C-alpha cells in the first residue's frame, strides 16, 4: 500500500517552500553544535554588511578572528547570563568594535543604506541537524548563522501527529544541549504535523509546556481551536506562507519578542527569585497586530477599533506591542501617523503588570511616561502637550484637565483602552475626546452659537483620534461606540479571539464545568406585638439583609465552604490550591471572616487560613474594621501575601472580582447575586491555567441559578453582535415628554447658556445661574406629589444619559437641544429623588428560624451555546407605580403564608421564588434593568409578568392561575419583587 506523504517528504516540501521565500539551504555539516551557529552563514553576513569592521578585526586577531567572534557571542549568550535574543537585537562588541548580528526593517524608505543592510540578512535552513550525538532535529532555521528555530515534524498520513513531536521534545531532547539551551539556543521550538502547530520557548524535559500556534477554525459563533481544512493546501500552510517569511521573522524578533522577568520572594529565605520567560507572540496576537497596522496605514486616524479578546488572550502584551508599533508607524508616504499614544485603564491605579509590559520593550529615555499614583492630572496634561510618545494613565484623570490643554489640533492621537466597559460610555470617555479633539478653539469664536457648535463637535469620534478598545465582554454601548458594521448592518468587533477558542486551545479553563448550586431555606416571623406599616421594597431589602447577615446562616455556609475546600480542593496543585469567597457586602465580608476564624479554631484546623478584602472602614456590632486591620498588613501587600502558601482563602466584597490574576485560584464560593458582565468577570478569576499542574476548578453558588449563569456566559462565548442602534428620535421623544411637564422656561434656558459661556464669570453672573436653576427646581416641586416629582427627575436623568451617549456615537448636532442639555446637566445636582417620610429599622422586629443549606444541583461538562445578539435600549415610556406600604405581617405573609387558598408555607415560598426566577431569566428585563432607572424598569417588568406565570403553569397551576385571573392580586403580590429583580439584573 502506497503512503500518501511520509515525514521525509513533508520535510522536503517545507524546504522547497522556504527556498521559494528566499532561504538558503545550509548543509548540516556546517553546523557548529558547540555554539549553535552556522559559521559559514555568520561570516558571510558579517563580511558583507560590515566589511570595514571585519577588516580591522582580521588585523587584530588574524587566523583567530572567527573563533574570537564566535566565543564572544557565546560569552554574551551564556557566560554573562545574556541571551541569543539580546545579541541579535543589540549585537556584540569585539575589541571595542560593535558588530551587528541582525538588521530590522527601517520605519521609512528614506535611508537607503539601512534598507540595503536589511535586505542582506541571511536566512537559511538545514535538515537532519545533529544537536548532539544522540539528538537529530528535522529542521533548524538560522538567521545570519545563528540558530533561532527548530522543528520536529510529523505526517498524519504516516500515523503520527504533533503530539508525538511534543513527546519527542519532552523526552528525547536535552535542555542542556547548546542548541536547546534556554535563552542561549533557539528562540522557539515548533512541534508540527499537517494539521496543527504547537510551540515552546523553553525545553524543560517532561515539564516542557507547549502552546498552540494555530489560526483558529471557523468564524463568528463557529470559531474554535485548530485550523481550517483546505482543498488545495495544508492546514498549516500559514507557517511557510506567512510566519517563516523573512520580513515576518525579523518583525517578530525585532518588534515582538522580549524576555519577561518576574520576581517572587522566597517565603523561607526571604530572597527574591527571578523567573524569566521568553515571550514569542501567539498566532492571534500576531494576527490582530498586523491587521490593525495594515488598516491604520490606509485609514490613518479616521477609524475606531474594538478588539474582543477573551481572558487568557495575552491582552496586556497586545496593548504593549500595539502602543510601541503605533508610536513608530508611518504611512506609505513615510509620514508618522500618530504623535502620541495614550494607554487608558479604568482602574484607579495603573495596573502594575501593564506598566511592566509596556516598559519591558525597547525604548529610549523619555519615550514612555506612566502616570502612577504619585502623578496628578496636571502631570498628564504636561505629558500630552509635550513630546512623550507613550503615556499610560487612568481614564479618570481626563475630566480634570478639560480646559487646561490647548492647541492640540495639529497632533494625532491613538488611544488604547484597557477594558472598555462602563467608563467608556460616560463623561470620562467624553472628556478624553474633548481634550484630544481638533476643535481646540484655535479659530476665532464669533458668538455663543459658535461656542456650542465647537463643543458639540468635540464629542464623539474625532478626526485626529483613533480609539483601540480591548474587552472580553463588550456591552451594547461599547459595540455602538467602537464596533464596525458588518455586511448585515450590525456592529461587531474588528478582531475576535473568543472565550470558546481560548478554552479549546487550553489558554484558559472552562470555569462552568464543575458547578454546584445551593439553596438556603428558612422560616421568617415577626418578633414584636406591634404590626407597623412599612414601605414594602425597603422592608424587603432589610429582610434580605437580615437573612444574609444572620449568624446561623453565616455559620452554616462557612461550614459548607471550609469542609468542601478541605475535602475537595485543598489537595489540588500539589497542595497549593486557593479559593475566593464572594460576599454580598463589606459587613458580610467581616462577619464571614469572623465566622471562618471561629470555625477553624473550634475544629482545630491549622492548615487553612483566610484573608479579607474590602474598601474603607465598615462598622459591625459597634466596632470598626478595615481590611489592613483584619489582615495585619497593607492593602497593597495583599496580592503578594495571598500568593504565599500560608493563606488558602480570600473573602472579598467588591474587590478582586476583576483584574486579579492568581493562577492558584481553584475554587469560588458565591454568596451574592451576579448578572451579565459581572458574572463573567467574577467567575473568570478561576480560569487561569497553572502549569505544570492539570488544574481543576470548583464553584459552589448559594445565590444564583445555573441557567442564568450559563446565559450570561453565552453572550460573550464566541462573538458579540449589536443588532440595533440609537437614533436622535429617542432623545426627541424624551424631550417631548419633558416639555409636557411645563416646568422648563425656554427663555430661562437661553439666558442660562448666554451667561454660562461668558468668559471669566464673576460672582454676579454665578448668582444669576443659581437663581435660574433654583427657579426650575421650584417649578418641578411645586404642587406635586413625591411620585410626580420623582417622575420628572427620572425623565431629566434619562434625557442627560441618552443625549451624552448619542453625542459620543454619532455626528448628531442640535444647538437648541445642547442648550437644554447644559441647563439640565447643572439642574440635575439640585434635584434629589424624594422618599416617603422617615426611615425605619427592622432590627429586633423579625426573627428567622429553621435555616438549612441544601445542595440543589450539580452541573458538569455543560455545553455553552453562543447567544451573541445584544441590543441597545430605546427610549421607553416612564411609568411609576406608587410606593407600596404594608404592615410587617403582610410583608412576611407574602413570603411565608397563604395566597387565596390554603397553601402551606413551603408551597407559597417556592411559587413566589419561582416567579422571581422566571422573571430573572428574561432577556428583555435584563436589557431594561441594565440601561434604565428602577422606575423606568417597572414598565417592562409588569409587561412580562403574564409570560412568567404562563411559563410556570405546569408546576404550580392553581396558584399561577389565581394570579393570572386577578390583576389586582397579581400586581400587589408580584410588585414586591420589582426592586430585587432590578438590582440583581443591574449588577
From TrEMBL:
Q: Residue ranges of the Helicase ATP-binding domain?
A: 277-497
- Its recorded name reads Type I restriction endonuclease
- Tell me the Pfam families matching this sequence: HSDR_N, SWI2_SNF2, T1R_D3-like
- Enumerate the UniProt keywords alphabetically: Endonuclease, Hydrolase, Nuclease
- Coiled-coil parts of chain: none
Q: Which Gene3D superfamilies is this protein grouped with?
A: 3.90.1570.50, P-loop containing nucleotide triphosphate hydrolases
SMART domains in alphabetical order: DEXDc
* A GO term, aspect molecular function: endonuclease activity
Which organism does this sequence originate in? Massilicoli timonensis
